[in-house]
Amino acid sequence: xxxLHLTADLYLCACDSxxxxxxxxxxxxxxxxxxxxxLTLVAxxxxxxxxxxxxxxxxxxMLLLAESHLALHTWPERGGITLDVYVCNFMEDNSAKAEQxxxxxxxxxxxGTIQRERLxxxxxxxxxxxxxxxxxxxxxxxxxxFRFNRRLHARQTAYQRLEVLESAELGRxxxxxxxxxxxxxxEFFYHEALVHPAAxxxxxxxxxxxxxxxxxxxxxxxxxxxxxxxITLVELDGEVIDAARTYLQNIHHGAFDDPRVCxxxxxxxxxxxxxxxxSQDLIxxxxxxxxxxxxxxxxxxxxxxxxxxxxxxxxxxxHLGTPFHEPAQVRELAQALSAVFPQVHGYGVHIPLYGTxxxxxxxxNDLDPTAISPARIEQRLDDRxxxxxxxxxxxxxxxxxxxxxxxxxxxPKVRR
Length: 416
Description:
Elements: E1 3-11, H1 18-21, H2 23-36, E2 41-48, E3 59-65, E4 68-75, E5 80-88, H3 95-109, E6 113-121, E7 132-137, E8 143-148, E9 150-156, E10 161-167, E11 171-176, E12 179-183, H4 187-201, E13 207-212, H5 217-222, E14 230-235, H6 238-247, H7 249-252, E15 261-265, H8 268-274, E16 280-286, H9 300-309, E17 310-321, H10 327-338, E18 343-351, E19 356-364, H11 374-383, H12 394-400, H13 405-408
Parallel strand pairs: 13-14, 13-16, 14-15, 16-17
Antiparallel strand pairs: 1-5, 1-6, 2-3, 3-4, 4-5, 7-8, 9-10, 10-11, 11-12, 17-19, 18-19
Helix pairs in contact: 11-12
């Protein structure tokens, strides 16, 4: 059973169009390169799809090999092709033959861009024995990942792909559009850092707005402050809340049902545009990344809407991305915040689930989180009866805002 599975997704292919729409032409190419690689053809099947809306249909085909198979599918309207080569290595190691076949086909199709995957299969004691390897990119050249033993939930919502995975190390883990959001084991890194620096710097936050945050973790942290009277959670995708209620109780601890919480399933920009009063002491943008449906909420215009509804002494908090892997994004978002708020304080924390040191920012007209002493933070934690935190404490508060030089260079100067 041991073998090598190679896949390649090709885009903007500049090859002869017949390779995308003519099954015979495509089959001839695949047969030749398969035999050239030293693999053994035993059967094949090809199908050309009919024209659709005046455009030629694509081709799906498979070569059955004594060593396993070659499968491919074409999308002529996109200049796209997916390739799938699998060889078993039972009697001999066929890996080099698989590599040769895939590379020959890639060269023939002349893609503009390509995505590749390589998977070793069939060894019960091999790298796949400890679970499904799930990878996430940090940028165009860096990836990281984890292995998960179980997939508890997966569906396509109206806005995104939603998954709940589980592993012994991370526990239940929420993933949206192939990006890790939160896990039972490490959620405290992000949620405590998102909530408590601003909440503790504030004398007595009473009203808060969370935009996004459908996992409920930010709600849970806010509710630890006894002065909180009302929290509005505005989440675009109600199915995230549903999944959190079902699978992520160890993250939100029932916060959705607290009488101080009002949950609204709607677009955050529309909610802010309709808001009339400057009544929010804290606004937390607990969002997916800027390239997702949350993109319009990472703009100067939306930050100005947030500023409009902040009460005196209030603060806006959001994450900016990873300053090492996404410096341009961090700089641009910080500049957009600085164009609206006189005070923009960057801070950071390493988040295991995100695979790197992560940038956040606290923006305000007048609240300075760096001006409060550790002794005062300690006193407020005691006065508010906040215990059981796993990351945040009085000493960590100041350390969060102590930026390494490469990150500091990305941030604008604070206008006091």
